[in-house]
Each structure stands twice: as C-alpha cells, then as structure tokens.
Amino acid sequence: MRILLDNFTKKFDDVMVINNMNLEVRDGEMMALLGPSGCGKSTTLFSICEIYQCNGGRILFGDRDVSNVTSQHRNVGVVFQNYALYPHMSIFDNIAFPLMVKKMPAEQIKKEVHKIAELVHIGDLLERKPSQLSGGQQQRVALSRALVRKPDVLLLDEPLANLDAKLRLEMRSEIRRIQQETGITAVLVTHDQVEAMSMCDRIALMDHGKILQVTTPNDMYHNPQTDFVAGFLGNPPIAFLDGVITNGQIQLKDSAIQLPLPSRVPVQPDGKIVRLGVRPEYFGNQAGIELQGQVSFVETQGRENLYDIRLGNGAVLRSIQPVRADAGLGDSVSWPLDTEQILIFDDQGQRVA
Amino acid sequence: MSDKNSSNFKSWPVTLILGLFSVPLLVMYLYLFIDTFTNTAPGSLIPNELTFEHWRFLWETEPGTVSIWQVTLNTLIFASVMTLVILSVSLTAGYALSRLNMPFRRFFLAGVLTLHAFPTVTLVIALFIVLQFLGLYNTLIGVIFIKAALMLPFGIWVMKGFYDTVPWEIEMAGVQDGASRFMVWRLLVLPQIKPGLIALGVFSFLEGWSEYLMPQIFAPEADVQVLSVYLASLIADDQKFDFNLFKSIGLFYVLPVIVLYLVFQNKLMNIYGGGSKG
Amino acid sequence: MRQRIGLLGLGFMTPALVMVLVFFLIPVVMTAVFGFTNMGTATGISGGEYLLTPKIVKQLEIRGEFDKQSLTALSSNRYQVTEAGLAKAASDGLKSAYIQGLRDSLLGREYSSKRDFERALKKIKDRPRKVRALKKSAEYFSQSILNRRYLTDHEFKTALAATGVQLSATEFDQVLSASYTGWIWTTDNFTNMFSKPDTWVVAFNTLVYVLLVLAFNIGFGLFLALTTFYLPSGQSAFFRAVWLLPRISPPVLYVLLWKWLTWDTGFISTVLGWFGVPAFNYMLGSVGSAWAVVVLINGFVGASLGMILFSSAIQAIPKSILYASEVDGANRWQQVRYIILPQLRWPILFTTSYTTLSLLTSFEYILLSTEGGPGNTTNVWALEAYFTALNNYAGNLKYGYGAAMALVLVTLGVLVSLLYLRLFKFDELVARPKIEN
Predict the structure, then answer these.
(1) From the candidates C1, C3, C427, which should be mutated to test the interface with A, based on the most A CB atoms within 10 A?
(2) Between chains, do B210 and C250 touch, taking CB under 8 Å as contact?
C-alpha cells in the first residue's frame, strides 16, 4: 500500500524538526530514508507509525488519511534497532502476540505463526527465549512479529546496526528477499549508504529535516542534485575541487590547470565559481587529461588501492585502481582525469550539470 | 580491586583499625546468640550452663501479658499488609510517572521527589489526631495505612526507577502490535520489573517488621501490639532486667530479618543505595 | 487518544494521590493549624463546654480585675424553689406528694445558704427519709452556676445572667472565656517556645547531636568504603556484613544490645570490673558518656548508608583510571586523595544533606536508649515535641504546643526537600515520554 506524506510537519515542544515534508512511497516499494544522525529520518519513521504524533499535514496509507489513527489501528509493522523482543516470552509467543491481542483463535494463531516462521527461516527456534538467540536470529524474529499480522506497511529502524559485519551482509539480502516475497511496502531508516543502495528500490536522502533528493540508488549515485548528496553517497567518497569558469573552460583555483567542460554541459558564463566533484574511479583509470601530483596517502583495500594525490595547488584528488608498483607514498605521478565524468556544482552546492 | 597485593600498600594496619572499631558490634551480636542458650555467672563473660529456659516465652504466657504468637501474628499482618499496600499503589503510580503522558506530570514528579526526602516523623502529632478523629487509634489498620503512606513516596520513587530501565522499544513494539497502553503495561512491562517488585516488597516487609515508632505511637495497646512494641515495653517494665530473656525474644524477632536478608541480599543493596540516591 | 492516555495516567496515580493527600498534605496543614491552638488532653480535640469551677473563680480573683463582691456573688450558692426545678425533680421520679408540698410551702422563696434551704426542706411533710436523698433533692433548686456544665455559650450566658450577679461587659467576657473547657486559637505556643530557656537547651542539644552524628556517619562511612574497597574480597565482605548489621536490625533489638553493652551490669562494666573499675551505667551515668553512647548508637547505624553509597560510587570509577594512576607511581594515599575523593564529591554532598535532614527530625534511637536523659541533657527537638504532644509521665499531653514544635521541623523539612529539587537534575528527570499517544 502506498504511503504519502503530505506537508508533514513535526515539532518537539517548540523545536521544529520536520517542516512541510512531502514524500511518496509507492505500493510494494522499499524506500530508504538515508541521512546523517539527527537529520529527522527516525522521527519521520516514528511518525508514520504514530509513536510520534504529527503536528501538521497529512499521512495517507493508500487513499486513507491515517493522521489521527492511533498506533494500535494503523496496521503498521515495525522492526526496531534493538529488535525489542519481549524477553519473558518464548519466540512463539513473541510472534503470536499481535494476533493474540487481536483475539484470533488459538488454532489460527498457530497456523499463522508457523507460516511466517517458515518464510523467515526460524521454524526450529519457536520454543526458545529471545536471550538464547543470536543477533541475526533475533532480527528474524522481530521481522516475523512485524509481518505476522499482515501489516499494510513495514517500517525498519536501523535494523542492521546491532549486527556484526558478516551477519549484516547476510541479513541485508534476507530482508530484501522477505520484502520482495511478501510484496509489502517498506520504509528502511539507515545512516549507511551501502545498506540503502543495496536493499532499496529508491532512496530519500535527508538532511536537517529536509528531503534533498528522492530517486533510485543508481541515479542518485550518478546524478546527485547537490554536492551534499554527491558527498554522502559513494565509498571511497567523492573528491571536490574548487574552480572558476575562464574562457569557457574550468580554471582550477590557485593553479594554471584548465579543464574542458564535459560535452553535456552548456556554455557557462565567465567568472562563475564552480565546485567539481570527481569520483575516485574516474581518476587514474581511463584516458583523459593528465594531472600531476604527489601521492600523499595510500590505503590498501586488498584487490584495489586507494590513493590520495595532492595537486600543485594543494587540492586533493582520490583515485581507486588496481594495486600498482609505481605509486608509493611521496612519489610524483601523472594520472589521467576523465573530464567527461566530472560533476559540476555552483557555489550554492546545486548541480549545474 | 584485583591487585590486592601491590607493593605500595600494606593491608594489615587497615584491617587492624577496622577490626578495633568493629569489636563492639561483633561482641554485641555474638552475645546475642550466646546468651539466649546459656547462663553466665555475674561478673563473668564465659557461660557456665546450657539452658533453654530463656526461650520459655514461646510456650508460656505470663499472666497479664499477651501471647508471643499473637504479637508475632500482629507483626506479620502489619508488615505484610503494609507491603501489599505499598506495592500495589506504587506499581501503578510509578508507571504513570515513568511512562505516561498526563496532565500535571511535572508537578507530580516534583512532589514525589520532594516527599521522598521529607522527614515523615515530623507529622506524627497531626497523624495522631487524624487517627483519633477517624477512630482508628489503637487499631492495626490505622497504623498500617500510616506506615504505608509514609513509605509511599520512597516506594513510588524506587518503582519509577525500575520502570525507567525497561527499554522504550518494548513498549513501542507492543503498541505497534496493537495492544493498548494498559495491555502493554500488564502483559509486557510488568513481567520485566518483577525483580524490582520482589526487592521493593522484601524491603518494605523488613521495614514494617522492624518498625517501632509508628506502632508505639498509633497502636500501643496489648491486643494490637507488634513485636517491637512488645519487646520495648517488656524492657521498660521489667525490674530485673533479664537480658537473657530480652535477647531470646530479640533473636526470635530478628531471625526472619536475617533469613530474608541473606536470601535477597543483592537485590536489597540496590534499594538501600538506589532508593535514597534518587 | 491523548486524552485517554492522560486519563489512564491519572487513574494510575489516583490511589497514590489519595494516600499522599490524607497522610501527607492534610497532616502538614494540620500541624500548622494545631500549632496555633492550645489543644491537649485538658481541652480535648473536639469542641468544648462551659464549666465554672471554684478554682477558676479563684484564678479570676488573683487577676485582681474583678469586683470582690460580684465574685463572691458568683461563687455563693443560692437556692430558690422554681417551677422549672420542680418539673425537673418530678421527671426524675421524686415523690409527687413531696413536690406538691414544696410547691405549696416554698415556691418562690430564696435561701442564701445550703443549710438554710435544707432546714426548710426538713419541714416538708412528705420529704425523703434518708438524709442523702434529701440533700440530693435540694440540688434541683440550686441557682448557682458553679460546677455545672453548659454545652453552648448561649446556655451559659443565660445561666450567668439568671444569677443576677452584676458584671461589666469585660468581666462577663472574662468569665466566659475562663470557663470554656475546649481548645481555642492562640499564638501562645510560639511565644512560650521562644521564651522558655529549656527550648534553647534542646535546640543546642539538637545542633550538637546532628553535627557529631553527621561527622561520624560521613567520616566513618567514607573510611569503611575506602578500606573495604582495598581489602581482599573475603575480608571486605566480612566487614561490610558486620557494619550492615545495625541497619538491618530492628531498632528495639539494636538498642537493647547497646544497653547490654553499656549498663552497669553489662559487658563494659564486667570487663572493666576485672581491672577494679567500679560498675558504671555508661548510657545514663554521666552527661559525657550518655552523649558518647547516643552518638555511637546513631553513628553505627548511619555509617552503613555512607558505606553503601560511597562504595558503589567507588566501584563506578573505571578500573583503568586506578591502574593508570598506579603506573604513574601514585601511592595508595595519593590515589585516594587525587583520584577517588574528587569522584565522591557528589555522593558526599548528597549523603550529607540527606543525613542532616533525617537526623534533625529523628528521635527513635534516643527515645529507645536514654529517653533524653540523664536529666534533659540528651533531649533533642523532635523528641521534646514527641514527649510534649504524645507521651509524658504527667499524662498532660499538649497537642497544640507539640504541633508548634513540630511545625518548626516541618517548615525546615519542606525547605530542605525543596532544595533537593535544585540538587537533582530535575529537567532530565521530567524528560517527555517517548510514546506520544
């Protein structure tokens, strides 16, 4: 079922946290709310399930306005960061709880619980207590409990944050699998771009209570609307260079180097200040304009190495490429920059092209 | 500390000083046990005779006095009903203060915090007159309610502390699962604070069992006497100062305390420290 | 929905609110109210009646503001046979012939002394044979208001007027208030309190008591916490258990053990007796030893509170800091002085203020041990209030005066406990509930 936030506003006492937010999550879609901590993504999530009350605007499930519907009646499943399993109940009772509250007959409860347990692969754990389970298993139980009463919407609040690296990888695909198998509309809150990109159909990137861009992971990576989005997405992160338009070309700040504008970019007026975003994979790999610099940092990542190259004007470009012997720390190198792939932002951080 | 034997520290002088200070206590409690089963000649400290006569109060009731079992029953009723009242009232109030949005919440919290530090003994005179008015003077029920009420701010405070430790997410999950706040409290939160409930219960029971002043003031009469008042009046009336008898009754009186204390030691520590820490 | 949660919250609070109202707020107000009355066993706690006794007349005479004659007239016993008296006698079952005889021969006559009247009665034909019954029948016609109870001031005023004694308006009022047996509003309690030298003695005692016990509690509590922290775990567990004994023992038993320890037949006297020291009651024998015993009894109990609070504060110091200080070459004393004590500042502040307040108002252990003796030397404010209002040998309990004394403590208690609100991080405490519905 689609979720629509229509001019949604949330205040805590007098502090405005989210002001007039608009967002649509399509039916069956998995949407990530991505952003740094304190950006309002959890507040939004908790407002969708009415743990927080919305102070303005509307929240719609399908065509139904649920702004004034209580948590108990919104039919939303939530998976919390620490799973919030009921420690005194067995796994079966945990999953059965939402059905028991609904006063469903015991026979049917049993059937439903077993069905969902099969889907989430915890059929053999039902007799145990939460404390006897591993983090990944608890996560699965939390998912089952959220899904068992067939909610309209599934909300996931940093579901992988408490898992170790290996389990996180496994649960990433598991959650996606279960979401796709049930076809439920889901919202995932995370501060981890990899999670957002790998699990979700679309990402809503938030900062300071505002949505900066909503689009598919791929599009967001390649076509960020602002330098903040460009900087937030991508690992290793994008490098920025300052420059100014001179004679239709980009003159780097404090440097004689001039770079051509990418061919897709229309003519820019002379004297315009610009910020160039260069992703590490477009420096030192393909053909392009050679830039001279000094290796100031090398990080071994196994298959590839990450190099920081300090240019003559002090600016730093990042390059990721297969390990090479000719670039040790302090060595002078001359590597090609693929100018066609440069992202150009104006001095307000808005994308020019 | 684990590095007990660091070279820059000798522990025996400290042990010695501590030991010297502890001698009075050790002597007192050692002879509490010894004197109940033995007789000692005047001027001596070494018992010269083993006897059970000091325990005769258990099966003999001197004329004009109440049976020890009646008094024990009174004490039991006093302590346990008081505990029940404290537990049931602070169970709900603590939750409301810890978790629920309600009018005047700030005011209530300030009130509980203030009252929990308030010296309650200053109120006994007014309470005495209240009881006279209500006709509850010299009844167990009157003194039970007074003692329970005076301990209530403390109980609510401790209970609120226990509720505060229950993760919010559990309640959020419960609400999302469709349960009302009352059901969340009843089915999901209460089971989490069971240990706290037991601790506060034992603590209140021990407080009630040991209490002297309130029963002395509000229910001193023989048929509602509790053990503390019974023992105190025995000591006050007796002309012979039969310490062996007093100690035997005292030991009988303190035995449940020691047993409960040994069983619930760790939980009680929490309350001794945490309750007054706020 | 928000409304309903508010109701659930208030519903959950209601039992607590009722009990707090009945047993805290009302008593606080009542203490203040009673403090301004002269309530006591003499006046009762409900309303009073009017009763003029010869004693009161004498007191009025001593005041010297009254005309001697009218006082004599007030106390003189005048008899007159009236229809009202006859009717009363008839309804009490006196023989009707006797009553008829009285009506016929004596109605309206006045006698100024009992003897004259009784002599007149003896002449009635059907009079009672027994002298006692005769004398009793005379009382129906007594016109004096002495030793008679009047339930309302109206009745009393009527009776007073009926005596025919001439009184000025002020004299009339004085008789009225002097004969009232119930309690009245007054500020005398406070003026008396501050003018009595005993009050200042007790106040001084209280100060000494609080300071000495507080010093012992904090100082020794700190000592116990530090030493048990550094001792091997077996030893420290032992000492902690020993020092907890006073706290978990019922006060009556604990003080009993102290009596056994300090009385002249007790442990100390017995041991010292072996060295030729005469037996001595250290609890009550001399002022100095009584104070020492009082301070120790309270101090031994209180030290364990400090021990528990300080111990847990020390345990909370990260071990790595202590190890680091040792690596840096600090000895134990320096470690205590520069690492541990600064961390204990807050618990010490808390324990000090908490203990001060509870000591100011506590009297249980003194009541059980010295009862304020010898003489009045170990009496403290709260104990004095208790004796005044609730328990003394004379049996003359002065609720009003005791309440006035308690009011001083209640005021102090309210002020200090409000101070706690400042000490605690109250705003953190009232953080909003995280579920908003």
Answers:
(1) C1
(2) yes
What angle do helix axes B194-210 and B140-164 make, rounded to 10 degrees? Answer: 150
Q: Which of C19, C282, C358 to mutate to test the interface with B (most CBs of B within 10 A)?
A: C19
Q: Which CATH superfamily is domain B58-277 in?
A: MetI-like (1.10.3720.10)
**Distance (Å) from the C-alpha of residue C180 to the closest C-alpha of chain B?**
21
Query: A239-346 has which fold?
Result: OB fold (Dihydrolipoamide Acetyltransferase, E2P) (2.40.50)
Residue B179 identity: A
Cα four-point dihedral sign A157, A159, A163, A166: negative
- In order of their start, the domains of chain C are 37-67+146-186 (no CATH), 77-143 (no CATH), 192-429 (1.10.3720.10)
Task: Show me where the domains of chain B are located.
Answer: 12-51, 58-277
Chain C CB contacts of B232 under 8 Å are 252, 368
> Around Cβ C113, how many Cβ atoms within 10 Å?
12
pLDDT tens over chain A, length 353 residues: 899 998 899 988 888 888 889 999 999 999 999 999 888 899 999 999 888 888 888 999 988 898 888 888 888 999 999 889 999 999 999 999 999 998 999 999 999 999 999 988 898 999 999 999 988 899 999 999 999 989 999 999 998 888 888 888 888 999 999 999 999 999 999 999 999 999 999 999 999 989 999 999 999 999 999 999 999 998 889 999 999 998 888 888 888 888 888 888 888 888 889 999 999 999 988 788 888 899 999 998 888 889 999 988 888 999 998 888 888 888 888 899 998 889 999 888 888 87
Closest CB to A51: pick one of C1, C432, C436. Answer: C436
| Cα separations in angstroms, A181 against A98, A120, A174, A178, C307 | 21, 10, 10, 5, 60
Closest Cα in chain B, distance from residue A173 (Å)? 24
Pick from B30, B32, B125 the residue to mutate for testing the C interface (most C CBs within 10 Å): B125
User: What is the residue-wise DSSP string for A176-214?
Assistant: HHHHHHHT-EEEEEES-HHHHHHH-SEEEEEETTEEEEE
Distance from CA of C221 to the nearest CA of B (A): 12
C-beta separation of A5 from A22 below 8 A: yes
Q: How far is C306 from chain B (nearest CA, A)?
A: 9
A101 neighbourhood in chain B, CB within 8 Å: 177-179, 183
What are the Cα distances from residue C198, in Å, to A339, C188, C204, C383, C403?
99, 16, 10, 13, 17
Task: For C265, list phi and psi in degrees, rounded to 5.
Answer: -95, 5
Residues of chain A in contact with residue B191, where contact means CB-CB under 8 angstroms, are 86, 88
The helix or strand, by DSSP H or E, that contains position C149, with its residue range, turns out to be: strand C149-150
Phi, psi of C363 (to 5 degrees): -150, 0
- Say whether A88 and B192 touch across the interface (CB within 8 A): yes
Interface predicted TM-score (ipTM) over 0.95: no
Domain positions in chain A are: 3-231, 239-346
In this complex, do A101 and B179 lie within 8 Å of one another by their Cβ atoms? yes
A52: chain C residues, CB-CB within 8 Å:
436
Cα dihedral: B148, B151, B152, B155 (round 10): -120
Task: Collect all residues of chain B within an 8 Å Cβ-Cβ radius of residue C411.
Answer: none
Domain A3-231 has CATH 3.40.50.2300: no
CA–CA distance, C163 with C148 (Å, rounded to integer): 13
What is the rounded (10 degree) CA torsion for A55, A60, A66, A70?
A: -80
User: In chain A, which residue's Cα lies nearest the Cα of B184?
Assistant: A101
